[in-house]
Amino acid sequence: MASPDTNTLLLVIIAIFLPPLAVGLKKGVGGALVLNIILTLLFWLPGLLHAVYCVLN
Fold first, then answer.
1. Among the residues of the chain, which ranges form H helices?
2. With CB atoms 3.0 to 4.6 Å apart as the test, which of 22, 30, 45, 47 could cross-link to 14 if both were Cys?
3. How far does the chain reach from its first CA to its final CA, in angstroms?
4. Is the confidence at residue 1, as pLDDT, over 80?
5. CA dihedral 29, 20, 37, 17 (to 10 degrees)
6. Dihedral class, residue 4 (left if φ above 0, else alpha if ψ from -120 to 50, else beta)
7. 3-class DSSP state for residue 2?
């Protein structure tokens, strides 16, 4: 079984390439996912930063 550190590392890697997917896996379907999709569509960097914040928080 993977350790929590490994899971976090994998989620950060996913957040770099597909920010909404990482937020969806961590937080589920809800406000954080909708916000991340909007931020990612506006510009990649805000979506990336929000995804990393959600994964690490």
1. 4-17, 19-27, 31-42, 44-56
2. 22
3. 22
4. no
5. 180
6. alpha
7. coil
What letter does residue 30 receive in the DSSP assignment? S
**Which token pair is 38?**
């909007």
Q: What is the DSSP letter of 41?
A: H
Chain-wide mean pLDDT for the chain? 93
| pLDDT (tens digit per residue) in 23-38 | 999 999 999 999 999 9
For residue 2, pLDDT beyond 80? no
Q: Is 32 helix (H, G, I), strand (E, B) or coil?
A: helix
- Count structural domains, the chain: 1
Structural domain boundaries enclosing 45: 4-56
**Residue whose pair of structure tokens reads 């920010």 in the numeric block:** 19
